[in-house]
Amino acid sequence: MATVTTTHQICAVRRFKPSFAAVKGVHLQRSHHRLSKSLLHGFSSSSLISSAPSLSYIQPRPIRRRLSSTGESGQGGGSANNGSSEVSVQVGFFQLGKLVNFVESNFLPLALVGGIIFGMLNPTPGYLAHKYSFSKFSTFGIFFISGLVLRTKELSAAMEAWPAGVFGLSSILLLTPLLSKLIMQIQLVPPEFVTGVAIFSCMPTTLSSGVTLTQLVGGNSALALTMTVVSNLLGIIVVPLSLSRYIGAGAGVSLPTKELFKSLIITLLVPLVLGKILRETSSVVAEFVDKNRKSFSVISALLLSLVPWMQVSRSRSLLLSVKAEAFALAAFIGVVLHVTLLGANAIALRVLLAASGGGKDSVFAKKEYTRAVILVASQKTLPVMVAVVEQLGGALGESGLLVLPCVASHINQIIIDSVLVNWWRKKDQVGEAKDL
């Protein structure tokens, strides 16, 4: 009878089939290992039979594994080292991402500064590029790209805000050049620094940064683009006249107005028209350009950075002889010029709003229009300035010395307007939060 009972118990043990997860987590003592080995040999030992009932009470005990700070399982110090290394990699990628975003957001000023630094460190390549008139090709490329990215529907959409556009063009081409007479009264050594900033004040608006900043702040990009294109086209006529009247007469120099006009048509208008024609005649080209507008902006910025690179390389010996204080003062004059234009345009728009009745439906009451005008009408373009200086042939001084403070002014105006745009965006977010 006892034998039968033991057999049933052994069968119960055999029928016991724990789950795979439980078996995987079982932790047996040495006696249990010996016991299971005896079971496989037919349970021949009497001591085995007497102890068999205790098998039904063996509970699977899971193996506890320590978790590292990153949530990964492991043992000892190795897991901690792996976790810390993974954290270091994640932090490294995060820092790299921040660096990439910074470069993308500030590519134009970084490219301009990089061109200046490279020209100062190794002037030979830039000197050779200038010798073979590479600057003409870079300017041609900039305006050709401007024609490629120019959308017709964006131009037609700006017709609603034509009063604001007319004021913006008047400020760019008629009012701002008046400041050049005041700038020319400043005494500075070398005098080319002052003359360069005065020439810069007579230029049309920037080709890309004004439109880009307008888009970032939620302004009317069509209006910004229209003022950009029209001011640069009319600048072909107006700029030579402004230089001759406000700068050339004060310097006792007769500017080659006809030659300058022809040169601006060839280097600015022709490539712009060619780029626009290519866009309108080929849907494949237009689609490709629209999908890669960011890449074309980078190419345009690189072409623009070649200009100060060649000018600085060419005039490196002169630049080294210039006092740092003089250059800093010239750069400060450019900052004052831009801040003055921002304030004057903002005040003028307020006056126009009051003159139009001050209604909410007025063009001058809509911030998407006023912000576009303030940004675009307060900036000055560097490529046109360089094209003008190239055609002067040294009539107003050394080309490199004329261009260098304008490069600083160009960078400073982008930085100042970026701060202004961020302030506007935060102001809008606060207003939206109050409305909610």
Automatic annotation (TrEMBL):
GO cellular component: chloroplast envelope; membrane
Record-annotated membrane-spanning stretches: 99-121, 162-184, 196-217, 229-248, 298-314, 326-353
Cellular localization per UniProt: Membrane; Plastid, Chloroplast envelope
Membrane topology qualifier: Multi-pass membrane protein
Keyword Ribonucleoprotein: no
A Pfam family of this chain: SBF_like
Keyword Transport included in the entry's annotation: yes
Key words, A-Z: Chloroplast, Membrane, Plastid, Transit peptide, Transmembrane, Transmembrane helix, Transport
Known role: May function as sodium-coupled metabolite transporter across the chloroplast envelope.
Entry similarity comment: Belongs to the bile acid:sodium symporter (BASS) (TC 2.A.28) family.
Protein name: Probable sodium/metabolite cotransporter BASS4, chloroplastic
Annotated source species: Rhynchospora breviuscula
